Amino acid sequence: MPPTFDDTIAHASTARSVFFVSDSTGITAETLGSALLANFPGARFERRTIPFVSGTNAVDALEADLRRAAAAGAAPIVFATIKDAGIRSRLARAGAVVIDLLAGHLTELEAELGATAETRAGQYHGLGDLEQYFRRMRAVEFAIEHDDGQSDRDLANADVIIIAPSRCGKTPTTMYLALHYGLLVANYPLTDDDFPTDGLPRIVAPHAARCFGLTTTALRLSQVRHERRPHSTYASLAQCTLEIRRAEDLYRRTHIPFLSSATRSVEEMSAVILQSMSLRDRPHERPLT
Amino acid sequence: MPPTFDDTIAHASTARSVFFVSDSTGITAETLGSALLANFPGARFERRTIPFVSGTNAVDALEADLRRAAAAGAAPIVFATIKDAGIRSRLARAGAVVIDLLAGHLTELEAELGATAETRAGQYHGLGDLEQYFRRMRAVEFAIEHDDGQSDRDLANADVIIIAPSRCGKTPTTMYLALHYGLLVANYPLTDDDFPTDGLPRIVAPHAARCFGLTTTALRLSQVRHERRPHSTYASLAQCTLEIRRAEDLYRRTHIPFLSSATRSVEEMSAVILQSMSLRDRPHERPLT
Predict the structure, then answer these.
(1) End-to-end C-alpha distance for chain A, whole angstroms
(2) Strands (DSSP E) found in chain A
(3) Quick one: angle between helices A266-276 and A170-181, nearest 10?
(4) What domains can be seen in chain A, in order of their start residue?
(5) What are residue B100's DSSP bridge partners?
């Protein structure tokens, strides 16, 4: 159904134009800008991301977009990671409210360090050296190879082995730690087969000191499993309750640190695991982005 | 060899203490803070990340750390994503230079939106709704299943298919797009077998409109391949030159947009692909973090 006239009016009157703008990828502008906007749940926003704004054509095009947005309603809000002050002024003159996420902090740092910041545009999520590139590639490949207990090859080299019942969030958390910290992360499912015994699954048992457990609530697990296999025993609340209880018992008995994914994002789980396993103190401490 | 007295002095006199501090995961503080520091290549930094600083114990412990760092040398620099102004003042009183990455921008937004920001700590890389959680999980699983041409099941549903010779960066770029944008991304290797013909590999050919190519320089490819299989034909400069030339010819002939990974980070490649394939204009446009 096409939007009615009333829909259009309602939309136009409530959604504020927001631009995430960068002389590089726009990832920081988009991520930090979105996080800032999340503090205003009552407001509605119309978002666009414009990366790689540095040459004249890109700046001209953006300026035209901003003038159009400003003419159509309230001043557009621009979250900017743009080093060039001249470009930021042009955006402000085009009628935008520019929230500078970068340059102001660079000025603070210059004052504090008694040094001048390099002023090249971009180089923000830079390539880094080849060694860092290898580490990241190796980590992502290790994570793929060791997803869901698929391989025990080279498990002795894992920095962390995430264990949990199916659908507690092992895979995305593994991938986040690999991609952003270059850590070698394996994950291993806890299945019914693992519970006649008292200990960890045979394959991960020798590496208990590097294991980290995930759990969740039975209700949440049941929701997530229903999405995969609706109305199965696997997704039933009874089965989920049982598996969660057994997993948590196992973690306690074997002194494996663990965490519930029920109310946490992948980023939050990753941060807790890094801290709990003291992985930030390793050579890997710096994020790869 | 233990450090000598001179090493210790040199170290103490040049490395500035830096803390990335957050009432949530610390990911933004760490990422944006590191990016800011990268503009001062002449300076040396000693970095620590302290996430989840909100309760009294965590603040007390951090304050003690800052006092120690301040006593040992120049004022420690704190990159903070902490909403509570009281905590930030305590850190400053402990002798730190606090660079506030969050609260100041919230104040700017409050003024512009005429609304008060919610003031809960954390909820910064929040969980989001269950639908978003499913999308991310599905995307990461799709990426694993379709890594390196392993499966053609469901390829018709891919948002993007990244094609390239081996070791051009397909896998980490695929994973980044899946994890951060919830996109369904497959990747497919171009091998010698694909080049007797004039067109795309048979499996991806029906999906040409969603293909994106990667290339690199022959020298770089040779370096990367030597790391995997030293002194092999596979890693030889002659072989790499040939494969790169054939791949670029193929992209041009079949009108596949492409990009060199030689001087770009995974984040930069992802941003270019999003823009080139207009994927930001889709329902997926907002980053998942």
Answers:
(1) 43
(2) 15-22, 44-50, 77-81, 97-100, 160-165, 185-190, 211-215, 258-260
(3) 70
(4) 5-113 (3.40.50), 130-285 (3.40.50)
(5) B80
Q: What is the mean pLDDT of residues B123-139?
A: 71
| Chain-chain contact of B42 with A115 (C-beta, under 8 angstroms) | yes
> What gap in Å lies between CA B172 and CA A123, rounded to an integer?
19
Cα(B269)–Cα(A287) distance, rounded to whole angstroms? 18
| Secondary structure of residue A176 in the 3-state scheme | helix
A180 to chain B: which residues are within 8 Å by CB? 27
> How many whole angstroms from its chain centre is CA B271?
10
Cα-Cα-Cα-Cα dihedral sign, residues B132, B134, B135, B137 = positive
- Nearest CA distance, A25 vs chain B (angstrom): 5
Burial of B150 (0-12, 13-18, 19+ CB in 10 A): middle
Interchain contact, A43 vs B108, CB within 8 Å: no
Would you say residue B284 has pLDDT above 90?
no
**Token pair 């989840």 is at which residue?**
B52
Contact B237, B222 (CB under 8 A): yes
- Would the pTM count as exceeding 0.90? no
Q: What is the pLDDT of residue B282?
A: 47
Above 0.95 for ipTM, yes or no? no
Mutation choice for B interface testing from A113, A123, A273 by most B CBs within 10 A: A113
B87 Rama sector, left if φ>0, alpha if ψ -120 to 50, beta otherwise: alpha
Question: In this predicted model, what pLDDT tens digit does every residue of B153-184 receive, in sequence order?
Answer: 899 999 999 999 999 999 999 999 999 999 99
Angle at A21 (CA atoms; ends A16, A25), nearest 5 degrees: 135
The pLDDT, as a whole number, for residue B98 is 97
Chain B residues in contact with A49 by the CB 8 A cut-off are 274, 280, 285
Distance CA A127, CA B264 (A): 5
Distance CA B21, CA B31 (A): 11
Any idea what DSSP says for residue A49?
E
| Alpha-carbon span B150 to B130, nearest angstrom | 29
Instruction: Report long-range pairs for A109-112 (Cβ below 8 Å, ≥24 apart).
Output: A109/B36, A109/B37, A109/B39, A109/B40, A109/B77, A109/B99, A112/B75, A112/B77, A112/B97
